[in-house]
Amino acid sequence: MFQSTKTMYTIFVGDKPIILTTEVERESGFESYLLKTVNINKVIKRLNTTNLESVQLIGENPNKLLKQFLKLLPNVVAGGGKVYNQKNEILFIYRNNKWDLPKGKTEGKETIEATAIREVEEETGVSGLVITKPLPITYHVFKRNGKHKIKVTYWFEMKTDFEGELFPQEDEGITNVTWLDYKATVKALENSYANIKILI
Question: In the prediction, which pLDDT does 27 show?
Fold first, then answer.
């Protein structure tokens, strides 16, 4: 029986996707490159400086697509949370003039779950967090000290009974922390990141 071998991962450069796939498609608005020979810095520059909508990187082995891509740039591993309170509102932070979910990079030998809980606590002041399930892992390219890196963020859905005051972690550039209901969440997503929209 024939089965499709199409495997896809999406890595964001800003809000523009790099799509890892094993299938070549003919469409307009994107460019395709071979994963094993691609100059990733050149691709990132094209996405950042042109009206190119997306890039496809074509690999041969669906099981090795992500592993191959992650070798192209240094990786930063982070953990974060999509936190619900008792009113079913979601905890958002406001940083760099965009709505985001709390997250941060791992420290020492802590587990990724411990990272996610610690970062939510540090960035928002919320406590009593319980992880209810894992969410999709997101990937995005960022620039630090003139060099591109890939942030690999492991997300978890969490719940809390916390009803206390929220404290934005100002030294991390967070200017606001708030609980948003469904309607406010939809509005916030108009000024958020593509990988956050995947999670909501």
Answer: 64
Residues 90, 180: Cα–Cα separation, whole Å: 5
Measured between alpha carbons, how far is residue 39 from residues 33, 35, 65, 75, 146 in Å? 9, 9, 16, 17, 17
pTM: 0.91
Select from 7, 61, 6, 15 the least CA-distant residue to 35: 61
How far is 130 from 41, CA to CA, in rounded Å? 39
pLDDT the model gives residue 102:
98
State the SS3 of the chain. Answer: CCCCCCCCEEEEECCEEEEEECCCCCCCCEEEEECCCCCHHHHHHHHHHCCCCEEEEECCCCCCHHHHHHCCCCEEEEEEEEEECCCCCEEEEEECCEEECCEEECCCCCCHHHHHHHHHHHHHCCCCCEEEEECCCEEEEEEECCEEEEEEEEEEEEECCCCCCCCCCHHHCEEEEEEECHHHHHHHHHHCCHHHHHHC
Q: What is the residue type of 124?
A: T
Q: What is the mean pLDDT of each run of 10 residues along the chain (200 residues)?
A: 58 95 79 95 96 93 94 97 98 97 96 98 98 97 94 98 96 97 97 94
CA 95 to chain centre: 15
